[in-house]
């Protein structure tokens, strides 16, 4: 379903391999008034990024199955689509600042809903 352009200009791609966490993140972001797309790994995310130029924010977990983890995905996407903004989350590790793309934000799981809302609004 395509978002009405006048109503939802910010499209957030949620990349998370755990279906329950992915669903919760999508519900949170949609509840804030943003449109979401979902991917279970970096390979699916890349396909969506190529097919949906309206994506402006990537909300990704670090650890996931596939050809690359969330940090590698953000570096790859930042190199290809510099205007993209990134929110990187993990419950298992905390990357060093130099490990994530410039301007990306890292949040530890569990994250506060209000923090996610503030960051997306800041990026939108």
Describe the structure.
The protein has 124 residues and is an alpha/beta fold. It has one domain (11-123): Rossmann fold, CATH 3.40.50.2300. Helices cover 36% and strands 22% of the residues. It is built from four helices and five strands, in the order E-H-E-H-E-H-E-E-H. It has helices at 19-31, 42-51, 70-80, 113-123; strands at residues 11-15, 35-39, 55-61, 85-90, 105-108. Strands 2-1-3-4-5 form a five-stranded parallel β-sheet, with helices on both faces. Strand 1 (11-15), helix 1 (19-31) and strand 2 (35-39) form a beta-alpha-beta unit. The longest helix is centred in the first third of the chain and has 13 residues, at 19-31. Mean pLDDT is 91; it is low at 1-8.
- CATH-defined architecture: 3-Layer(aba) Sandwich
Order of strands across the widest beta sheet? 2-1-3-4-5
Uncertain stretches of 5 or more adjacent residues:
1-8
User: Strand count, sense and closure of the main sheet?
Assistant: 5 strands, parallel
Structural class: alpha/beta
Radius of gyration: 13 Å
What is the name of the CATH topology? Rossmann fold
Mean pLDDT: 91
Number of strands: 5
Taken in chain order, the helices and strands follow as: EHEHEHEEH
Gross geometry: globular
InterPro entries: Bact_response_regulator, CheY-like_superfamily, Sig_transdc_resp-reg_receiver
Protein name: Response regulator
Pfam families: Response_reg
Modified residues (4-aspartylphosphate): 61
């Amino acid at each position: 379903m395509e978002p009405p352009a006048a109503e939802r200009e910010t499209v957030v791609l949620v990349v998370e391999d755990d279906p329950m966490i992915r669903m919760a993140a999508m519900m949170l972001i949609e509840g804030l008034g943003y449109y979401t797309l979902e991917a279970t790994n970096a390979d699916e995310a890349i396909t969506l990024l190529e097919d949906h130029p309206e994506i402006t924010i990537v909300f990704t977990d670090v650890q996931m199955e596939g050809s690359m983890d969330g940090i590698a995905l953000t570096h790859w996407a930042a190199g290809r689509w510099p205007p993209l903004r990134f929110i990187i989350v993990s419950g298992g590790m905390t990357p060093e600042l130099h490990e994530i793309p410039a301007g990306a934000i890292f949040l530890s799981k569990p994250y506060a809903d209000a923090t996610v809302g503030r960051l997306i609004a800041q990026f939108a």
